[in-house]
Amino acid sequence: MFEHSKKYLSYILNPLELLRTKKVLQVNPTVAAQRIEPDEVKIFVYDYDVDKMSTAEFKKTSESLDFINTPGISWINVDGLRKTDVEAICAHYGIHYLITEDILSVGQRPKMDEIDGLVFCLLNMLYFNEKDSAVEIEQISIVLGKNFVISFQEDASKDVFNPLREKLKIQATKIRQQGADFLFYSLIDMIVDNYYVVMEKLGEKIEELEEDIIRNADTRSLAKINMLRKEMIVLKRSIAPVRELVNGILRSESELIETRTEKYFKDVYDHIIQANDLAENYRDMMMNLQDLYLSNVNLKMNEVMKVMAVVTCLLAPATVIGGVFGMNFESIPWLHNDYGFFIALCMMLLFPVLMIWIFRKRGWF
Predict the structure, then answer these.
(1) Are 180 and 147 spatial neighbours (Cβ–Cβ below 8 Å)?
(2) Domain co-membership, 255 together with 310
(3) DSSP label at residue 122
């Protein structure tokens, strides 16, 4: 009963928490995607080799279909997922319709596939919303082909690839010296590295909450704990499957991934294992915070009960003395004494003082 009360109280303190719960726990891959298609789709193409690099921006899908046979490496970044445009690009570049369905899906679990000679991976880019203290997710799909990489993003405003774009402008960088598989690795590596940025923000929120609970634990602290626990669920669900994804790439026998690039994917694998362990540590910290909150609440309650018990004990002698001398008997000692009232009053004060001295001596307070 008490646990249910706390849960409903947290919803009253933060009405959006209930909606967040439904969003976090909503999982049904059999339901058709309800994606809101953007008004426009922007396609950025970075075509490069060792000597030169060119960039282009297109708003029409047909203008971006000529990079399949270029002698260099082409990175085609599609910002905005519109069904007709995605299907047109996938059909032109020989991407299987099952992969196309995964690209257009919503809430898909991170995965890796190898179909028709192409390597496909789907994972989540994470962002931390400082205003709402919430982890936001953007699903991204990456397709590796011969001399090209295609990335599909939902929102162009949320991107972690700007450092990679800057590296492409510099001729002496390693990415300009390597093939498409190294570009494929670089995209995944930047997504994984950004997980640490999000976890660092969450770690700061957990530390602030811990200090707040130690100083003053109240019902709002419990609501914050529940909110952060939900964000940890989002984080865990996004990070944990990426380990299988990278492991699948390492086990792949695709000719598109050269042997010299495997060591870089092993490095990503190490990073994702460490990120997964860190997410587990944060989850344990959240459980400890909940225990700390309950301990502080119980401690406060014990302090209140202790004060009330002491006050009750101190008033008990006065109550007894007042009750004895208030009885309706004719023969009571000192009943008609001129100083009887003052003697009773002194006894009422003397006994509590004596009790306080005994309590202090025994270390009860």
Answers:
(1) yes
(2) no
(3) E
